[in-house]
TrEMBL record:
Gene Ontology MF terms in the entry: beta-fructofuranosidase activity
Transmembrane segments annotated in the record for this chain: none
Record protein name field: Sucrose-6-phosphate hydrolase
Organism, scientific name: Mesocricetibacter intestinalis
Function: Enables the bacterium to metabolize sucrose as a sole carbon source.
InterPro entries: ConA-like_dom_sf, GH32_Enzymes, Glyco_hydro_32, Glyco_hydro_32_AS, Glyco_hydro_32_C, Glyco_hydro_32_N, Glyco_hydro_beta-prop_sf, Suc6P_hydrolase
GO CC aspect terms: cytoplasm
Family as reported in the entry's similarity comment: Belongs to the glycosyl hydrolase 32 family.
Amino acid sequence: MIFNNGKYKSILAAQAGELENIRRRVEEDKDFRPCYHLAPPTGLLNDPNGLIFDGEKYHIFYQWFPFDALHGMKHWKHFTTSDWLCYKEAQPLIPTEAFESHGCYSGGALMVEDKIALFYTGNTRRAEDNQRIPYQNLAIFDKAGNLLEKRSLLENAPPGYTEHVRDPKPFFSATGKIRFICGAQRQDLSGTAILFEMDDLEDSPRLLGELELPDFDNRHVFMWECPDLLKIDQQDLFIWSPQGKPREKLQYQNNYHALYALGHLSQGRFNAESVAELDQGFDFYAPQTFGGLPNNEYALLYAWCGLPDLSYPTDSYRWHSMLCMPREIRVHKGELYQQPLAQIYQNIKMAQPVTVEKEIELKDLDRSYLKFDAQNTPFNICFFANRKGQRLTLSYDGKTLCLDRSHSEQTETMLKFGEQRYCALDSLHQVEIFFDRSILEIFLNGGEKAMTSRFFIADRQNRLSCDRPLLLEIGYPQAISYK
Ligand code: FRU
């Protein structure tokens, strides 16, 4: 079927030249398009989906509405890469069946022999009353990236849950069965995650029950999106995106959050030694890890650098959001550490270090990598000051790092959820910042904390000023290309 109903329009219904016209508008954006982050060619990107290593290359899918910067009919855009520099376009997942009539919502992938099994939510709406009916579906791709078949596994939410059951993430159980975990909302409108099991891909899923997480304060939380359960270095890691957590002074600053719990899972009960936000920036949501890695010494993750229900300044150019850089996650000193993938570092061209006394103009600062030792001493650094007085500020008072966007282009996030983001630290030494036109990813103390944010300053100058001398290492990550 070719769906074409308002914003629920499939790419198969595009008119001749329609996408090219949108693409031309996207290309008019000379300020904010990134060089080395994955961004949609047109329209809106949200969650990373179906991340899997097939033994030779990495498959990356993401939620995509091709026609505009809004949440319309969701497709899964699909790329493969083996070097994280060249991204080869592969067959997307397109809604064509009744069990996905209003979009192929999020999900994950599992290598089953030499096939890629995608588990995802089919979003549908009943014609009479627009009632949402969720389906959990399966699509099989070959390693070359071609769709072989699709079918629906489950129709409707199981008893005890509302229609908000979605985002299946599959994995193998210790006995080799296929399991998947879905985000869900209980009938009492609280958020949770539920587990299903199947003997093999031909089987029908059985509900095992909820994932209990007693160490998490679930008060006010009405939905868990994008759950992800995996082993990392002898421990269990649960990553999810709960909605409704109240804001606090130094954490949970955004509308919704991406959290992790590290600990041990036994019989559906997750005993967590730590529960924390994965990232403390303005724009980080719906992270997902790769399946199919050869071992679980580390995990590999992408996230959506954006948040639900918010507009962004690039919407007028008809594109919205990007993914973070691929991130390596490790357990270190009992905590979760995150840094860009080793290959990203290998592809940074380092320049001579510079000492900045007060102010400096740095070539292509807005697509650079910066590294310095803060020596656990307060600082205040200002980036990209332009003639209108816009700038981005990063400051440290000896206890807390603050990223201040108050003097950059106003965004809906800032209007509704504040203009600063904070990160409390016992001490601060290594600071690494990756800038890419309208995004910055900050990694502190070798990955102990991360802050990922978009920022919008047009006509910026590649200037940096600071209130004390700084010895800066500077480099340039290689741009990615599409094939
Ligand atoms: C998270 C999310 C998922 C859903 C998808 C739809 O951002 O809302 O729960 O499957 O996006 O695009």
